Amino acid sequence: MVAANTGVSPFEPSLTEHYILAHESLTICVRMKESQERMRERAHQLQGEVRRMFEAGKAKSAVELATLVDTIEHLGIDHYFRDEIAAAMRRVCSEELEFSSSNDLHVVALRFRLLRQHGIWVSADVFDKFRDDDGKGSFSPSLCNNPSGLLSLYNVAHIAIPGEKALDDAIAFTKRHLEGTKDKLKSPLAEQVSRAFDIPLPRISRRVENMHYVAEYGQEEAHDAALLELARLDFELVRCLHLKELSLTLWWRELYNDVKLPYARDRIVEVFFWACGVIPEEENSRARVIFVKVFAYASLVDDTYDVHATLEESQKFNEAIQRQVLSILQIVSFCGTRSLLTLCRWDERAVSVVPEYLRTLYLRTLQGFKEFEGMLEPNEKYRMPYVIKAANESHEPSFAEHVRVSTFSSGLPMLVAVVLMGVAGDVVDDHATRAALEWADGLPDMVLASGQVGRFLNDMASYTLGKNRKDVANAHECYAKEHGVTGADAFAAIARMTEDAWRTINRGCMEMDDPAMLPAVRLAVVDLTRSVEIMYLGGRRDAYTFGSTLSRISSPHYSSSPSRQLPAPLLLLCLATALLYLAAAAASAQSGFFGRPIRLLASLRSVPVSLLCLAVTALPAAPLLLLPLLPLPG
After folding, report:
1. Which residues share a beta bridge with 131?
2. How many whole angstroms separate alpha carbon 352 and alpha carbon 374?
3. Which of 1, 273, 390, 592 makes a 20 to 30 Å CA pair with 282?
């Protein structure tokens, strides 16, 4: 069967078009095993010191305890102290009087944010004391002299639920006054305000914000040296694992060359950044690999439908997939999920209806799902049917119909199940994972709202860029046509709907029928949706499709990377990593692409190690070395 067009890709080339990570560069951290072991030993010692802080916290105020929890979470080391944080939050919740009697806006906002982030309801009435006319008027002008308090209020207002008008007022008030003073603010508050205006703290990817705060925390007068050192060590250990996991680029290159679909986006590194944003922890390596591979297959199919295949070809490919899915789900329905592994045989006979140029993609996709099934432990096999069903959820398409259908085409409802399929038991216990999969399978409002955020941000970015010739009508066009408004008015309306969807997610976190599910739901829904905000830059640009955006996104992150402030042994580790990477790349590249950075590196021999490491990050080879720190797509 002949393809619909020439097969030329309309997308920008990949960040990695001219080179692939060499195996040597991917095993650097394995060779540094002894150094890593020393780092882990030191990290373990520091964990003991931090636990003693929690024990001492029993004699401290609830405000001090809340500040400790917030700092630990902000630094990204909360996964070490889940039990201690849970106990601390119970105290923060119960000792309301200490916070409600405070006239410090930051203190009141801190408790409000922590409780809501942990799924505990607290009323926005706590901010009435900062408003005129007995809590019914505008926020008091006296707050304008407290920029840190204003920033705290601005951030917590983005954990609002539907109908909280007071928090709408808070956003408008704080943004107006912070914009008027941001040029006068000192570092790091100035940078924190700027980031919050781009994407508010409760909605930014954890990994991105952790990296920023690890670099900024040392500038605070009251910073704790043990917390800072632990955060730096943890960040470096996770970065090293992410670097090794980038062997996925070799898997992708083999797949991409095998399926022979040159029109498709070549974006495996960008997908990996996204996976790190959703599930960055060391324990979740399997979940990241599954996430990346599922997204890779989905991206190939998506690009085939969007820019290449005819309607007939798309229907035939979909028919073959549906045959496979129905066969599997019938087995599951009849025999139960425990029989899936022994009775389910992935039937490749449906390939006969697939267009010839798509048959390799079809067969490789089936092989991929076999691989995912094999990665699960026997007691985890029940997770597989949820992913298969979610990946093929079908609903029939006015504007309301478009929203309903495009929510599923955003891929977010499917990815919720994908994240839960691979999550480690050390991060979320299996009972919570099973309950969360059952819950997500029912497509609750929270899951649908996540899909809406993904779809709306995608369409907002598309509107900003302009419509491709083969694109179907997006949300803006449907809304503008139905309501008879301009594109700009439709854009504003979609932005409001995105905000409403976020508020539905916020409400869902505080209305869990089974609170034990909350860690799984926060991971699979909240963190996934946060990562979408980064993927689409808050609706300003599709950074996944347009890879050139990556360098612009990542440049501020290089300068604030925690590795700049690491102790000398770790600086040497960074330097060795960079040098080995460049050497391996130079050995494998015949085009001389790496000649310029190597000559530049040689010219910097007299620069101190710390500056040399920083210089290396600016080289063209550096993104694949350092960007695993960031879940930022291109």
Report:
1. 139
2. 26
3. 390
- Inform me whether the pLDDT recorded for 409 exceeds 80: no
CB 467 within 8 A of CB 546: no
Amino acid symbol at 574: C
**What confidence score (pLDDT) does residue 481 get?**
84
**Residue with token string 């941000």:** 457
* HEC per residue, 197-230: HHCCHHHCCHHHHHHHHHHHHCCCCCCCHHHHHH
Structure tokens at 448: 């649908």
Cα dihedral sign for 434, 437, 439, 441? negative
Q: What is the mean pLDDT of residues 132-138?
A: 76
- The contacts of residue 505 (CB under 8 Å, 6+ apart) are 446, 449, 450, 453, 525, 526, 529
Instruction: Find the length of the chain.
Output: 634
- Note the pLDDT of residue 470: 47
Start-to-end Cα distance in the chain: 33
Token pair belonging to 569: 């042994």
Per residue, the 3-state secondary structure of 164-194, as one string, reads CHHHHHHHHHHHHHHHHHHHHCCCCHHHHHH
Domain 246-547, CATH number (from 1.10.600.10, 3.40.1360.10, 3.20.20.80, 1.10.10.10): 1.10.600.10
Q: CA-CA distance, 417 to 441, in Å (whole number)? A: 8
Q: Where are the CATH 1.50.10.130 domain residues in the chain?
A: 54-223
Q: What is the pLDDT of residues 462-490, one digit of tens each?
A: 776 555 444 556 777 888 888 899 888 98
Give the separation between CA 627 and CA 634, rounded to whole angstroms.
11
- Determine the distance from the C-alpha atom of residue 523 to the mean position of all C-alpha atoms in its chain, rounded to a whole number: 10
Asked if the 54-223 domain carries CATH number 1.50.10.130, the reply is yes
Greatest Cα pair distance, the chain, in angstroms, is 75
Which residues of the chain form CATH 1.10.600.10? Answer: 246-547
Q: Using alpha carbons, select from 581, 571, 614, 631 the residue that is nearest to residue 21.
A: 581
Question: Between helices 445-465 and 399-409, what is the axis angle to 10°?
Answer: 100
In this structure, the number of other CB atoms found within 10 A of the CB of residue 467 comes to 13
Question: Chain-centre distance of CA 287, in angstroms?
Answer: 13
Q: What is the three-state SS of 390-420?
A: HHCCCCCCCHHHHHHHHHHHCCHHHHHHHHH
Omega within 30 of 0 (cis) for the link into 188: yes
Residue 186: C-alpha distances to residues 52, 73, 386 (Å)? 33, 23, 49
Average pLDDT score over the chain: 77
Cβ(273)–Cβ(633) below 8 Å: yes
Q: Specify the pTM.
A: 0.78
Question: Looking at this protein, which amino acid is placed at residue 305?
Answer: Y
Per-residue CA distances from 247 to 186, 213, 428 (Å): 41, 28, 26
pLDDT in tens, 610-621: 333 333 333 333
- How deeply is 179 buried, as exposed, middle or buried, from its count of CB atoms within 10 A (0-12, 13-18, 19+)? exposed
Compute the average pLDDT of residues 394-399: 48
Position 375 pLDDT exceeds 70:
yes
Backbone angles phi, psi at 279, to 5 degrees: -135, 75
Residues with Cβ within 8 Å of 564's Cβ and at least 6 positions away in sequence, in order, are 215, 610, 613, 614
Residue 424: predicted pLDDT: 81
Cβ-contact 366, 320 below 8 angstroms: no
